Amino acid sequence: MTTADTKQGSKVREQIRQVLSSQRQPTITVLSSLLAVQDSLHYIPDEAIRETATFSGSTINEVWSVASFYTNFRFTPPGEKTLDVCWGPSCHLLGAQEVLNAVHLALEIEEEGESADGKVTLKYNTCLGACAQGPVIAIDHHPIGKQTPESAAQVARELRGLDG
Amino acid sequence: MPTPFEDLQSRAAARWEELTAGQSAWIRVGGGTSGLAVGADRVFDAFNHAVESSGVNASVSMVGALGLMYMEPQVDVLMPDGTRIYYGNVEPEEAISIVEQHVKNGEPLLDRAFAYSVSDGAASGETGVGKLPVLESLPMFALQERIATRNFGEIDPHDLLQYVANDGYTALNRALTEMTPEQIVDEIKAAGLRGRGGAAFPAGLKWSFLAPSDAPVKYVLCNAEEGDPGAFNDKGIIESDPHTLVEGLIINGYATRSSHGFIFIRQGHEMSIDAARKAIDQTYEAGLLGKNILGTEFSFEMEVSLTGDSYVAGEETALMEAIEGKRATPRFKPPFPAAEGLWKKPTNINNVKTLAYVPEIVRNGSEWFKGIGTETTSGTAIVCLSGHIKYPGMYEIPMGMTIRDVLEKVGGGVSEGEQIKVLQAGGPLNGLLGEEAFDTIIDFDAMTAAGASIGSGGIIVGNETTNIVDLLRTLIAFNQFESCGKCFPCRLGNTHMLEILDRMCQNKAKSSDLALLQRVGSSMKAGSLCGHGQLGYNPILSAMKYFGDEIKSSLDGELELVGVFGDGTMILPSRTRP
């Protein structure tokens, strides 16, 4: 590890400690701590596992067991924007498959993950809570309803900074 | 000298009068996640700008969802004369004309409005609004009995005073000052209130398990982990009227002599989280939470607890694991939560909807509630209609209405295509229903007998083009993806069932696969700790009952490839947890 890496690491650790200690709700747990880190950094760096263990008096294994369970946690930095596409039964009946296919094409990826330009993270979602407006997608948790393959592909291209 | 509560009420009345009976107009924009998904936030901004630029005397509020989601973004204007006019599918660009013509010049845009209403004693007709239907006369409104949803679209959910002005917290005041905890439990029992989370267990009885314990720390938990695709009524309550839930949970705490309440919500559902947190903060500030509430002996604390993405976290013991900060996997029972729950303390868990009825039951009495609905299921169901339905939305209907009436009269029938073929009711662990079941009444027992469930209230509608095997595959894919993995019959069984359904979709299944599905399903039922595994075969079981011929025709390779495999470009997600 170079000196620069160490410095970088200690900066991240400091940032994580700050996030952990500024949780405002009365009940603080391993899960609440991990959620706070992900909310702030948008992923769980390795340092956060160790810091959360220290902060909550748990073992690293205990923290990993929680972090690996909930499917919203990720361990590498996401793209600049996260695009969720719902595939739940309600959206499915209204054409979510075609929407998802179109988004895959627009992002030039074949499954969940980051577009090659690092602009967009695609996530499959089982319910975005606006079923009456299906098919639904969401940009950074902000839902957008009544999608067609064309409209969703345009959203995806715009997120990549490409012309609609 | 007025009591602290009377003081709060008089401040609330003044606030309400200023909004509804003053000299200015009140513009209410329907919000909520559903409204947001079609741009209600942009419409709200546009109205604020329009009011500012035209200099009219009007307040603009983002309220909750009226429930008519096919009309969203939905806006209404209450004029000082008491006439209220409702506009549907409003574009941000229309804000300026509605403000200029309707609010400023008193000329409503009748061709853009879909209904009107008048407050008591107000005159109507002079402006020609009488040509519009009265809101309450629209079938999807007339057939409703709005109890838990009574304030939806009426009040600003972020304003405690507006809630109090509409009888809010009077039930809590009555409970704390006039009733003993035992009397409240008896009242909830007598009302026949059954849990609305899906299991339909009598709420009063459940509360009575916790009440006798003298433990100094006891918990009441509100389950707002609404994971069922097609259900959005918990979100609806929290986003549209969070104080109803907070009041219900405080009364729940008093009746069970508990010390702490938690509202459990999934991270990412920002609107719900924000609404719940704000409501709790305001309730503390008003002295309705914390030490010695309203000057009584009763003290009670409340907070929001966030969870990560996990469907099983909505199971009551898994939920407790998640609040404790662990993996959300179910516990062995016994011990039951009332004996040993959250952090091993006595605990009581209720769904959002169950708690939302509580203030009105305490305020109006159990007899009143018992008089609504059916013999075995009193009260209402908050149904969420989505899929191929003309009027998707959230409607509170009395128990006992037939499914057909809900679909045809409330929902307006099929949206595209010829007819409704299939319903997926009560979440992905419950069944599919075919046309011959549509005369079933909405009632916990009748729905269960038909092979489905009211469950959480979601009803997903499919038209005649719906491929049953493809729909089943989506449901089983959901269940497979969401298995927490603790019990192997569920973890492996769902994976195995999904493989078989994949084969059925790819025309590679054999007729013997049906028996295999059944064997897997019965192992899951026998060998799983919670409903996720126990009920996982339900969709297939019910589909065989109503669509047996169609399913059989997908066996032994005779049909076209269907669904996700039809165009060969995509395989839907399928994975297990690490």
Strand tally of chain B: 14
CATH topology of the largest domain in chain B: Rossmann fold
Biggest sheet features of chain A = 5 strands, mixed
Mean pLDDT of chain B comes to: 93
What low-confidence regions of chain A span 5 or more consecutive residues with pLDDT below 50?
none
CATH architecture of the largest domain in chain A: 3-Layer(aba) Sandwich
CATH class of the largest domain in chain A: Alpha Beta
Helical fraction of chain B equals 40-55%
Report the order of strands and helices of chain A.
HHHHEHHEEEEH
Unreliable segments of chain B (pLDDT under 50, ≥5 consecutive)? 567-571, 573-578
Strand ordering within the main sheet of chain A = 2-3-1-4-5
**Distance between the ends of chain B:** 63 Å
Largest interface: A-B, 52 and 69 residues
Q: How would you name the CATH homologous superfamily of the largest domain in chain A? A: Glutaredoxin
Overall pLDDT score of chain A: 93
CATH homology superfamily of the largest domain in chain B: NADH-ubiquinone oxidoreductase 51kDa subunit
Q: What is the general shape of chain B?
A: globular
Description:
The complex is a heterodimer of chains A (164) and B (578). In chain A, a hairpin with a 5-residue loop joins strand 2 and strand 3 (120-125). Chain A has helices at 3-21, 30-41, 46-56, 60-67, 89-93, 96-107, 149-159; strands spanning 81-86, 113-114, 120-125, 137-139, 142-144. Chain A is an alpha+beta fold. Chain A has two domains: 3-67; 81-159, Glutaredoxin (3-Layer(aba) Sandwich). In chain A, strands 2-3-1-4-5 form a five-stranded mixed sheet, covered by helices on one side. Helices cover 48% and strands 12% of the residues of chain A. Chain B has helices at residues 4-20, 32-37, 40-54, 95-104, 139-142, 160-165, 170-178, 181-191, 203-210, 233-240, 242-255, 270-285, 316-323, 352-364, 366-370, 403-410, 444-450, 468-482, 488-505, 512-527, 531-534, 538-552, and strands at 25-30, 58-63, 75-78, 83-87, 113-118, 219-223, 260-266, 301-307, 347-351, 380-387, 393-398, 420-425, 432-434, 458-463. In chain B, strand 10 and strand 11 form a beta hairpin. Chain B is built from 22 helices and 14 strands. Chain B has four domains: 18-138, Glutaredoxin (3-Layer(aba) Sandwich), CATH 3.40.30; 160-368, Rossmann fold, CATH 3.40.50.11540; 380-463, Roll (Ubiquitin-like (UB roll)), CATH 3.10.20.600; 468-565, NADH-ubiquinone oxidoreductase 51kDa subunit, iron-sulphur binding domain (de novo design (two linked rop proteins)). Chain B has 578 residues and is an alpha/beta fold. Chain B is 40% helix and 14% strand. Chain B is globular. In chain B, helix 3 crosses helix 4 (95-104). Chains A and B meet through helix 2, helix 5, helix 6 and strand 5 of A and helix 2, strand 8, strand 10, strand 14 and helix 18 of B.
